[in-house]
Amino acid sequence: MTGTETWLEPFDGTDATILRELREVVARLDPCPADLTERISFALTVQALQAEVAELTSQPELVSRGFADDPAEATTVTFSTESVSIMVTVTPEGRDRARLDGWLTCGAASVGLDLDGGGTRTVEADEDGRFVLSDLPRGGARLTVHPPGGRPVITPQFTL
Amino acid sequence: MVTEPPRAGGGSGTSPPSLASQAGEVFAAYVDGRHEAIGELVELLTPLLWQVARAHGCAQHAAEDVVQETWLRLVDHLEDIRDPRAVLGWLVVAVKRESWRNCKLARRNTYDETGTVDPGDVEDGPETLAILTERQGALWAAVGELPERCRALLRVVAFVDRPDYDQVSAALGMPRGSIGPTRGRCLDKLRRALVADPRWVDA
Questions:
Q1: Is B22 left (phi over 0), alpha (psi -120 to 50) or beta?
Q2: Which residue of B has its CA nearest to A30?
Q3: What domains appear along chain A, each with residue ranges and CATH number?
Q4: How far does A64 lie from chain B, in Å, by closest CA?
Q5: What are B111-145's pLDDT values in tens digits?
Q6: What CATH architecture applies to the domain B17-118?
């Protein structure tokens, strides 16, 4: 071979180019899954709140497709844990807003809606467990319900 | 405000802050009570941690689990990290260890009869190589010829900035100076293979 200790030479522009191109190759061949950061953030939120995760128990279309079929139609979806069920009806409001009518089987509770685009809207459910949030931006969202004295309940993401 | 060490060979004036110092600032904000900062830290470092898990033998699904578990452990171990700038290294070490624990064993039992098949490696099938240019294909093939420790080091280091090399090498269990300020043995091997490859040189 060459006999010179080329590995002791200073890291130079060619080395930087090799690593930059390696990064491009790896990013193309084996990229981090696009939704991984979102799932991790969700897991961290659940852990931080010591929350129960509600499962979707009806109308999975809302979660995956939104209003693909008929944009004018209201869609209802239900999430449940052992202790509480959350029914959510989403209705389009004008061209690009939405209204959410919710009902909780646990009665009065604080409700937070985390919006995908950032920000949280909060509302108090009345003693029958009903609440309304209107003028919401379209997009992904998830609800966190804080029943008085109970563990918070957090829903998977659904589409407004 | 963190002062950056000068970047040799860059030459283009202002360089972005290193990943370790960016992560350190966001982490410090989280520890100080800005809860949403953890989401920013996840966005910033998860693509790197994915590469760490994949470079240490985790199949795709296992790599997702390993990276997620590591983030959950971080928020339970905040007191372990005294210098916020060390959070990058802490996460890389944790993902590497978790990968060894969860993925190496599966790999040995399932795949590693010859030591050549690695579920953390990318399939070099025709579809895979078709998305690469000839020059990129030459690079990827040369990386595949390196010893495993070198493959892991270069694959991970490629996702950070020069000032981070020491912290990342140390986290990967490589000696300080494995890469930067000198070229180091791993990158030297790769570079020598490439300069002998007409697909790399002529492209």
A1: alpha
A2: B122
A3: 36-159 (2.60.40)
A4: 21
A5: 444 444 444 556 666 676 778 899 999 999 999 99
A6: Orthogonal Bundle (1.10)
